[in-house]
C-alpha cells in the first residue's frame, strides 16, 4: 500500500507483458505490532500470496536511495524508536523490507518482526533478481544491495554505474581484470 497507483500499474503491465502475475497486497509493509502482522500473514487470503512468493522466478525491484527517504516512505509505520535504531545500525538502504548497511549485511531489528514481505529464503531462490536504480545519490544503496547478493542483475545508467564503482572501496566489483 505504500506504492503509488502508477507503480502498481507499471508492475501489472510488466507482469502481463511477460505472461506473469502481479498482485497488490492490501496491507502496509510494516505493521504497528507483531500481532497485527501475524493476523495478516496467517489469513486465508494471504496463503495464496505466500505461495506466489515461493514460486517467483523473476523479480524487478527499485533500489531506494538513503535512510532519509526510507523514513519519508514509511513514515506512517515507523516509530521514533524504529528510526533511532535504523540510525544506530547505520542503515544505508531498504530492499523488500530488509535493511542493509554499506557492506550489504542484512540488519534485523524490531521492524523485521513487523514486516510483511517476501521471506529472505524465497528471495535467495529467485533466478533473475533484478534491481533498478538511477542517480548518483542512490549509488551507495545500489552498492549495498549488490554486496548483499540479493540481486544478480542491475539496471542503471552510465553515471550511476560509474559512481557505484567509485564508491566500491573494497574492490568487490573491480572490472579491471
Architecture overview:
This protein has 177 residues and is of the alpha/beta class. The protein has one domain: Rossmann fold (3-Layer(aba) Sandwich), CATH 3.40.50.1360. The protein has helices spanning 5-17, 34-41, 44-55, 67-73, 80-88, 110-113, 120-123, 139-148, 158-167, and strands spanning 58-62, 93-95, 98-100, 106-107, 128-132, 153-155. It has a 3-stranded parallel sheet with strand order 1-5-6, with helices on one face. A hairpin with a 2-residue loop joins strand 2 and strand 3. The chain is globular. The mean pLDDT is 87.
Order of helices and strands: HHHEHHEEEHHEHEH
Side by side, the strands of the main sheet go 1-5-6
The secondary-structure class comes to alpha/beta
The number of helical segments is 9
Instruction: Supply the CATH architecture.
Output: 3-Layer(aba) Sandwich
From the 3D structure, determine the CATH topology: Rossmann fold
**What percent strand?**
5-15%
How many β-strand stretches? 6
Q: Please state the average pLDDT score.
A: 87
Morphology call: globular
The stretches of 5 or more residues where confidence is low (pLDDT under 50) are: none
Share of helical residues: 40-55%
Amino acid at each position: 500500500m505504500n506504492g503509488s497507483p502508477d507503480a502498481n500499474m507499471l508492475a501489472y503491465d510488466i507482469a502481463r507483458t511477460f505472461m506473469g502475475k502481479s498482485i497488490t497486497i492490501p496491507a502496509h509493509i510494516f505493521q504497528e505490532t507483531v500481532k497485527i502482522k501475524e493476523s495478516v500473514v496467517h489469513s486465508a487470503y494471504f496463503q495464496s500470496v505466500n505461495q506466489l512468493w515461493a514460486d517467483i522466478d523473476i523479480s524487478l525491484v527499485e533500489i531506494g536511495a538513503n535512510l532519509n527517504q526510507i523514513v519519508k516512505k514509511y513514515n506512517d509505520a515507523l516509530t521514533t524508536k524504529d528510526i533511532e535504531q535504523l540510525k544506530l545500525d547505520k542503515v544505508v538502504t531498504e530492499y523488500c523490507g530488509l535493511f542493509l548497511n554499506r557492506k550489504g549485511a542484512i540488519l534485523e531489528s524490531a521492524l523485521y518482526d513487523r514486516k510483511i514481505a517476501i521471506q529472505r529464503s524465497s528471495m535467495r531462490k529467485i533466478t533473475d533478481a533484478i534491481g533498478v536504480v538511477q542517480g548518483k545519490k542512490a549509488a551507495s544503496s545500489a552498492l549495498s544491495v549488490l554486496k548483499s547478493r540479493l540481486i544478480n542483475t542491475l539496471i542503471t545508467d552510465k553515471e550511476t554505474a560509474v559512481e557505484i564503482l567509485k564508491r566500491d572501496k573494497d574492490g568487490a566489483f573491480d572490472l579491471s581484470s
